[in-house]
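Quick one:
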Amino acid sequence: MTLRTPLTLANPLLLLLCCWSCSEPSAAPLLTRCAPQRAFRGSLPMSGVVEGERLSPSLSIQLDDGSSATSWPVQARLGGLLLTDVRLSDGTKVQFTVPAELGAGAHDFELELGPGRTARLPRALTIVEDGTSPAPPDAGLTADAGRQPQQPLPDGGPPVKEPPDEPVVFPEYVGCGQFSSPTPVTVLGMAGRTMWSPALSTDARELYFAVTGTVGDELWSATRSDRESVFSGAVALPDLVGGGDNGTPFPSADGLSLYFTAAPAGAVTSDMSGRDLYRATRTSLSAQFDDPEPLTELNSGGRDQLPWVSRDELTIVFSSERSGTSRLYTANRPRRDASFSPPVLLPGVNGGSDNRPFLTPDRLTLMLSSDRPGTQGAHDLWLATRPTAGGPFGMFRNLSVLNTGSAELDVTLSQDGTELFFIRRDSSSANQLLRALSNCP
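Output:
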């Protein structure tokens, strides 16, 4: 459903409306994520460029205790401004008018339906100043619209295009390779589901992961407003390749590409040996990923998966079973529209079955899951270093504070190195998503 109002200004604002999910415990309202031409859990899909000074959008609401929303007093804020004309319709929709004084930028929407019944949608509404060359209605904004001047990246190569939703900010890496004891991570809506391969967006607000489905894995994402909040609004991404198995996601630094693994239709096997590496792209952060393409120059007859990609997208490291054992391979390319070079073994990493690499922005520190000698369980998390980018890794250290007699898998870090996420799989084949914080001296 595309919402529009007539133009009422000589120099109108262009408003791009998108919905995000958020819920709090204790009978809070669940605001369901929306996307163009797609509805999740019965929500009302909304999308498109809305022109004009005033707008009355509708947001789908489902109360988690099943009660009607119409009996509750409503108070809401948009971008910190108190909304004075908020209305409930049929107990399922919230309607309001966007204040004319609301300036350009990404604005949070906060809703309160009585004591203890609150919800927040981070960056629910983005207002873009006129003159930034928006794309046609329902297409979102182009990757070049309204972007800031490009900055060189720490690991070299051409700069990343900064999407219009918010400029990409590359945080300083402050990790030290020491971590606290891990604690469980809550992703609302994922209770009882088997999760794999967590990976964070650059701003650490969005978590991508895979969930075991009926045929293979499915790609999902969830969001949080800050690092102390739970992840909520878990949404399944489309089956990008169409084979029913899409997994091990890794977003690019600008959020406009998603590297992942998939088995094409007819290639899914019980051990997922038909998996290949793919990349999907999108035009803006509010758009869906589309146009997946296989990275044929990297794929083999074995299982190829678990990619890590540098900020400039010119270096990739991934796990492959082309030799019969899971090993880490790497490849480079001169520019983003070029093919990668033939993959070679990651120098110095040859101690066992190795999975899910993660390199720091300077590429001098590697984290991985491995069963190399010294491992406590089926797989442990390890850290290795090297003096120069491109050289061999050495000085392998078991991250013992994170490891147990179970299998520790799928390690990933925030871009600043302060948060580490991983999967722990116990003897009953149950997966748990865990987080550890940097514990620097």
